[in-house]
């Protein structure tokens, strides 16, 4: 299954599921990341982690460990 | 009596709420004429601030709050805002009207909080801030359409340019005069879902004073996440049985699962569904979203190689500037102070009073005021950095590094603010979600060299570090300064690792989720205002704390006035109360290369670090019978031990003193704030003991090893 972590800079995808249901994931959902939301991978930090994504028109950074639990399609 | 003076008879309480970094404080400042801190990163405001404006006979009290993304708080700053909105007491009395400040260029996520707040049932105004950004991004926001869809007044604003503020004031007073509206429901809950929620909804309606629509909203939140129950239960008194609520939630979730409805974070799913639908009709894209200068800038600033290099260059540049350019205004203040001293000396008859005024007050307070330009330079640069959005990028770049110390990128901004002063730095740790991470950040924040250390650094470096440059670029002085800052950072990093192991505490899973704001052109006007505030605080502190200590010190250093001093027992000042005390502790600090004068300074500087400078100034001026003010740097270099004839201070004792100032806990105000933020004496006491022992050992090592090898 492809995850947010696998995207390349500039690549766009649609969220299709979550492998985790903890409080941190709930926080991301409140920030607007849910099934059906389109996200664009912007870049990763100089040390490779965390990453920056564009979601609903704003930029958010999160760690790769988190991104691995977010499944995407397309 | 002035006939136009309005006698306010009504008063109104208005809360400014909204997502972080949407311009709430900018709106607050424009409404009230105050100068609260504004900056381009999430989490600038971390406590409630109040101000007011008057409209006819109405006084409107404005409450500025920390930003939050939802009514489910994650950190202390969120919680402060959330409590004010959801406490049952607050629901009834504290707030009459809510102004939700939203970023018009990013409405989608901003409306999530709005829909939650509408359910509370208070009158709400939507302030659409950053309309300039929306236009720039090629968005067209239909205000009338939003008003119709939301059923509340919508006021477009550009708070930074104070545009639309009068409209907002008018909207507030108009809405406050109207009877409360019943907001329509801002969420599409499927019928089957509503059916399942009903039992808990009824239970809450019966056992609380919440409105029907708030109960519905709350039920959905409780079913959506377990954290909601933990938070909302705080506010329920005896009437609500938490166990029973838990059971209801359990049943509802079961039932929903049978109906194959996903209850996990259902609130977020349902609200965003509604938001997406209405925004489709109210916001349209009229222009292309251009990758502006920000995107190009970002490529360089966060480049794997260029990024870190730029970071270090920026800070090295700041120190170099502080040394190179601040010298000039510093000279002006210095000669101004000298002139005042000479003038005072010629107008006051020689004697005790003259000594108190010239050697005590003017020399002491003046010696610290001289450093005002340096401190303003530092605040200018930090202010510019904060306003551009660069701070958030530093947090982004540093997250991976911070992880090694058990922290996250979230700790970076509090630590960077601590370069100005540890107090706001420690306050801003309120944005850190995890308590253990927050505690560690609080404990290491005072290792960041704050502006109060600058006068001491500059004085000692100026006196003892040779002039010259490295490859003609950066002076030895600036390089020493940069090293001192790096030493503080290193001590902070190692201590964080140590504390992570030491402090046994159920730390949550470390995480880092942070919004990265767009780059913005820093506002010079705002930076200047912040500098003005800083200057005011610095001068008024010099006028209060430093003045008071200087006067007390003058007495202690001038008495007893032995008429028959025996030169064999030392100078008069050595025989004064202060001198005797300094001599008493001298054995303790002798191994660090410090004499009794420094000893006195170490004690007085517990009030504020820069007091070291005023203390030395007072002592040297008293020692020097001359009427003109002494040059403190020259006095330090010239000072010789009367018994051995050798200089009192060497390069190594100077370096030891610098190291001591980097590492020691010497600030009462910081101790007090740590006590308040951690709610116990345990942590501030640990901090004093830990930092001061570390400082002692490090200075000891520097002086002894240095003197032994190169002395
Ligand atoms: N372009 C533009 N920028 C604005 C506007 N209003 C505020 N800003 C900028 O947005 C940034 C955030 O402003 P603040 O007033 O600190 O925002 P806040 O909502 O109080 O932020 P927190 O206290 O962190 O929640 C600052 O850099 C402001 O200069 C506006 O109308 N247009
Ligand atoms: Mg603010």
Summarize the model shown.
The complex is a heterodimer of chains A (74) and B (711). Chain A has 2 helices and 5 strands; from the N terminus they run E-H-E-E-E-H-E. Chain A is an alpha+beta fold.
Describe the protein.
- The complex is a heterodimer of chains A (74) and B (711).
- By secondary structure, chain A is of the alpha+beta class.
- The N and C termini of chain A lie close together (11 Å).
- In chain A, 47% of the residues are buried.
- In chain A, strands 4-3-2-1-5 form a 5-stranded antiparallel sheet.
- Chain A has helices spanning 23-30, 64-67, and strands spanning 12-18, 38-44, 51-55, 58-62, 70-73.
- Chain A is globular and about 30 Å long.
- The longest helix of chain A is centred in the middle third of the chain and has 8 residues, at 23-30.
- Chain A has a single domain (4-73), classed as Ferrous iron transport protein A (FeoA) (SH3 type barrels, Roll), CATH 2.30.30.
- Chain B has 31 helices and 11 strands.
- In chain B, a hairpin with a 2-residue loop joins strand 2 (49-55) and strand 3 (58-64).
- The model of chain B is unreliable at 1-6 (pLDDT under 50).
- Chains A and B meet through helix 1 and strand 4 of A and helix 4, helix 12, helix 17 and strand 11 of B.
Q: What is the secondary structure topology, with strand pairs?
A:
The complex is a heterodimer of chains A (74) and B (711).
Chain A: E1 12-18, H1 23-30, E2 38-44, E3 51-55, E4 58-62, H2 64-67, E5 70-73
Antiparallel strand pairs in A: 1-2, 1-5, 2-3, 3-4
Chain B: E1 10-17, H1 24-32, E2 49-55, E3 58-64, H2 76-86, H3 88-94, E4 97-103, H4 107-118, E5 124-129, H5 131-136, E6 139-141, H6 143-150, E7 154-156, H7 165-177, H8 191-207, H9 212-224, H10 226-232, H11 242-258, H12 266-282, E8 283-285, H13 293-301, H14 306-347, H15 352-369, H16 372-388, H17 390-403, H18 412-417, H19 422-427, H20 435-444, H21 454-464, E9 469-470, E10 474-475, H22 476-502, E11 513-516, H23 524-558, H24 572-575, H25 577-589, H26 596-604, H27 611-623, H28 632-638, H29 651-663, H30 668-678, H31 682-710
Parallel strand pairs in B: 1-3, 1-4, 4-5, 5-7
Antiparallel strand pairs in B: 2-3, 6-8, 9-10
Helix pairs in contact in B: 2-3, 4-12, 6-12, 8-9, 8-11, 9-10, 14-15, 14-16, 14-22, 15-23, 15-27, 16-23, 20-22, 21-28, 21-29, 22-29, 23-27, 25-26, 26-27, 29-31, 30-31
The structure holds guanosine-5'-triphosphate (GTP) and magnesium ion (MG).
């Amino acid at each position: 299954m492809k995850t947010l972590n696998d995207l390349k800079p500039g690549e766009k995808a649609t969220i299709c599921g979550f492998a985790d249901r903890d409080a941190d994931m709930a926080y991301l959902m409140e920030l607007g990341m849910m099934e059906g939301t389109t996200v664009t991978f912007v870049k990763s930090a100089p040390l490779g982690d965390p990453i920056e994504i564009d979601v609903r028109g704003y930029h958010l950074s999160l760690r790769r460990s988190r991104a691995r639990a977010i499944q995407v399609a397309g | 009596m002035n006939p136009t003076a309005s006698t306010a008879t009504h008063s109104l309480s208005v809360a400014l709420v909204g997502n972080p970094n949407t311009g709430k404080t900018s709106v607050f400042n424009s409404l009230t004429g105050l100068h609260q801190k504004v900056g381009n990163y999430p989490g600038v405001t971390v406590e409630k601030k109040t101000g007011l404006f008057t409209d006819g006979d109405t006084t409107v009290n404005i409450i500025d709050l920390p930003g939050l993304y939802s009514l489910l708080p994650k950190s202390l700053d969120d919680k402060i805002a959330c409590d004010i909105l959801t406490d049952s007491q607050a629901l009834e009395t504290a707030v009459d009207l809510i102004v939700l400040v939203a970023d018009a260029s990013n409405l989608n996520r901003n409306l999530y909080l709005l829909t939650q707040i509408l359910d509370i049932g208070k009158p709400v105004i939507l302030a659409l801030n950053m309309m300039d950004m929306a236009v720039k991004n090629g968005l067209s926001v239909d205000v009338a359409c939003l008003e119709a869809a939301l059923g509340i007044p919508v006021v477009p604003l550009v708070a930074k340019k104070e545009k639309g503020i009068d409209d907002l004031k008018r909207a507030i007073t108009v809405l406050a005069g109207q009877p409360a509206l019943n907001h329509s429901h801002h969420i599409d809950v499927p019928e089957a879902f509503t059916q399942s929620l009903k039992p808990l909804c009824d239970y809450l309606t019966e056992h609380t004073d919440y409105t029907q629509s708030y109960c519905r909203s709350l039920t959905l939140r409780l079913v959506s996440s377990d954290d909601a129950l933990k938070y909302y239960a705080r506010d329920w008194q005896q009437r609500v049985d938490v166990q029973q609520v838990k059971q209801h939630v359990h049943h509802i979730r079961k039932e929903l699962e049978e109906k194959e409805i996903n209850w996990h974070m259902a609130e977020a799913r349902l609200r965003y569904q509604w938001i997406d639908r209405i925004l489709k009709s109210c916001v349209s894209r009229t222009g292309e979203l251009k990758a502006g200068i920000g995107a190009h800038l970002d490529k360089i600033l966060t480049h794997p190689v260029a990024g870190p290099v730029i970071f270090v260059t920026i800070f090295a540049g700041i120190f170099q500037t502080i040394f190179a350019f601040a010298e000039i205004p510093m000279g002006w203040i210095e000669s101004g102070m000298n002139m005042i001293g000479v003038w005072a000396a010629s107008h006051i008859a020689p004697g005790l009073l003259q000594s108190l005024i010239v050697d005590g007050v003017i020399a002491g307070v003046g010696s610290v005021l001289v450093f005002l330009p340096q401190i303003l330079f530092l605040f200018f640069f930090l202010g510019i950095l904060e306003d551009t959005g660069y701070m958030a990028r530093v947090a982004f770049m540093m997250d991976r590094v911070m992880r090694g110390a058990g922290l996250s990128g979230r700790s970076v901004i509090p630590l960077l603010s601590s370069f100005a002063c540890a107090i706001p730095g420690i306050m801003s740790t309120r944005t850190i979600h995890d308590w253990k991470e927050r505690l560690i950040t609080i404990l290491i924040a005072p290792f960041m060299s704050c502006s109060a250390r600058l006068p001491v650094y500059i004085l000692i470096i100026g006196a003892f570090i040779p002039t010259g440059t490295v490859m003609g670029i950066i002076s030895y002085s600036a390089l020493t300064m940069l090293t001192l800052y790096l030493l503080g950072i290193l001590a902070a990093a190692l201590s964080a690792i140590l504390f992570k192991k030491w402090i046994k505490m159920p730390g949550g899973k470390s995480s880092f989720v942070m919004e990265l704001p767009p780059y913005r052109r820093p506002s010079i006007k705002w930076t200047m205002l912040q500098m003005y505030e800083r200057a005011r605080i610095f001068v008024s502190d010099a006028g209060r704390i430093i003045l008071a200590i200087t006067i007390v010190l003058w007495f202690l250093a001038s008495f007893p006035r032995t008429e028959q001093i025996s030169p064999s027992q030392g100078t008069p000042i050595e025989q004064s109360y202060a001198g005797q005390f300094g001599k008493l502790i001298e054995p303790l600090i002798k191994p660090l290369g410090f004499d009794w004068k420094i000893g006195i300074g170490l004690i007085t500087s517990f009030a504020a670090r820069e007091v070291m400078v005023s203390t030395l100034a007072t002592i040297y001026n008293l020692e020097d019978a001359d009427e003109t003010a002494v040059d403190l740097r020259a006095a330090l270099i010239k000072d010789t031990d009367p018994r051995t004839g050798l200089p009192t201070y060497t390069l190594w004792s100077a370096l030891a003193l610098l190291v001591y100032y980097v590492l020691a806990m010497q600030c009462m105000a910081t101790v007090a704030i740590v006590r308040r933020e951690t709610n116990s004496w345990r942590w501030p006491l640990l901090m004093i003991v830990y930092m001061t022992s570390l400082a002692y050992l490090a200075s000891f090592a520097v002086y002894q090893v240095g003197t032994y090898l190169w002395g």
